[in-house]
Amino acid sequence: MLDDEKLKYPIGRFTPQENYSSDEIKKLIDTIELLPGKVEAVYKKATPQQLNTPYRPGGWTLRQVLHHIPDSHMNAYIRFKWTLTENTPLIKVYNEKAWAETYETASDPIVSIQFLKALHAKWVLLLRSLTAEDLKKEFTHPETKKNIPLSRLIATYAWHGEHHLAHLLLVVH
Questions:
Q1: Which residues of the chain have pLDDT under 70?
Q2: How many Å apart are CA 164 and CA 156, to the nearest integer?
Q3: What Cα–Cα distance (Å) separates residue 5 from each residue in 9, 49, 60, 136?
Q4: What is the sign, positive or negative, of the torsion defined by CA atoms of 161, 163, 168, 172?
Q5: What is this structure's pTM?
Q6: What is the CATH number of the domain that holds 106?
Q7: How many domains in the chain?
Q8: For residues 78 and 61, what is the distance between their CA atoms, to the nearest angstrom?
């Protein structure tokens, strides 16, 4: 049996770099672009029982993870838009645990997968349009009080998608 750390972080914890090359950014955007198809493929293989199975003891069910990914990535998209249109905005955090327990997260995840596909199509258009100067723009995180550049946010969400995809694959092979 896998230890708790490996179950929580099957691809390892996110470790940001100080800087990202243009080639690294392109690969990270490619990862974001491909995620919805990978998630949908896992969903199509999942049984109803697997959808209601937590990926680890005390963890979310696969159904909750499938709803969480677009919720989280929608917040990331909004953070990008704020950062591109405001001067170092203070972003809003959200309670991921509470969002994972709202009414619609008990529904068929196909709605969230369709949303993820549309969101990522639009998001990737935005990401591919960013200039080197845009990638340096920052927002302020209200809890850490740190400024986060958009280049790091791209890396974070490329990792985030793969992180939760690995959770799904712990149950659906």
A1: 1-2
A2: 12
A3: 6, 24, 15, 32
A4: positive
A5: 0.95
A6: 1.20.120.450
A7: 1
A8: 26
